[in-house]
Design goal:
There is one protein chain. This protein is α/β, with parallel strands linked by helices. Helices cover about 45% and strands about 15% of the residues. An eight-stranded parallel beta barrel has the order 1-2-3-4-5-6-7-8, surrounded by five helices. The chain is globular. The two termini are about 15 Å apart.
């Protein structure tokens, strides 16, 4: 039996309102052959300013509608932040939490990420929890020490049912946007280890880091990799969907 693949696109700071509208004009016919494929779940995570056209495109196509970040307080004096109620009103169901760019560029600590995960779960939404090591951490032999800290901090205090509702995304920082990719064996080793650490055999674990059509089959065929969190290749429908096509061939 073929496993279900989760194909999630993180647009990061790309695609304006009008570019998002254009994306879905092209996406609709490209996605049509996959609409009824029960072994595929497609999701797109857009910038806040593009959430409205994304909501319309997601509704028509039936894909997952996601945001890239959120603050854990429902309201208050937090200039520049976006709350969970604001996103829920748009119809957002999934939110990326703890992406390496939030951790390393914007300095979000483990404690803040844990609060965000809990707040998203309490709202009945799905957190997509990112974690991963830098090149320096890998080369110094600290890959699993770093990720154990990141994962345990995020799930500490959660019930087993809550832990199971999180979607996990292993993203080695050294492979994001660099063209470098963890080998299938490297990615599988971490995803298998992650599944054992969180204690949920059925947890959904994605791999992210320069995933594209040319390496998708090897990566997604690994037993403990349930899908991909895709960056640059998700900005256009054809290369994005090519990742699943390549896996299925």
């Amino acid at each position: 039996m073929a496993k279900k693949i989760y194909l999630y696109g993180n647009w990061k700071m790309n695609n304006t309102y009008s570019e998002t509208e254009k994306f879905f004009v092209d996406f609709a016919p490209a996605y049509e052959p996959f609409r009824n494929d029960k072994n595929l779940e497609v999701g797109i995570f857009a910038p806040f300013t593009s959430l409205w056209p994304l909501s319309q495109g997601a509704k028509k196509s039936g894909i997952v509608f996601g945001a890239q970040n959120v603050y854990y307080e429902a309201k208050g004096a937090f200039t520049g932040e976006i709350s969970i109620p604001m996103l829920k009103e748009y119809g957002v169901t999934h939110i990326i939490i703890g992406h390496s760019e939030r951790r390393h560029i914007f300095g979000e600590p483990d404690e803040m990420i844990a609060k965000k995960v809990k707040a998203v779960l309490d709202a009945g939404m799905t957190p997509v929890l990112c974690y991963g090591e830098t090149l320096e951490e890998r080369e110094s032999g600290n890959t699993f020490t770093v990720m154990e800290r990141q994962l345990k901090s995020a799930i500490s205090g959660l019930t087993p049912d809550e832990v199971k509702k999180i979607i996990y995304a292993y993203e080695p920082v050294w492979a994001i946007g660099t063209g470098k990719t963890a080998t299938p064996d490297q990615a599988e080793e971490v995803c298998k280890w992650s599944r054992e650490l969180i204690g949920q055999p059925e947890a959904v674990i994605l791999y992210g880091g320069s995933v594209k059509g040319s390496n998708a089959k090897e990566l997604l065929s690994m037993k403990d990799i349930d899908g991909a969190l895709v960056g640059g290749a998700s900005l256009k429908p054809a290369p994005f969907l090519e990742i699943y096509t390549a896996y299925r061939e």
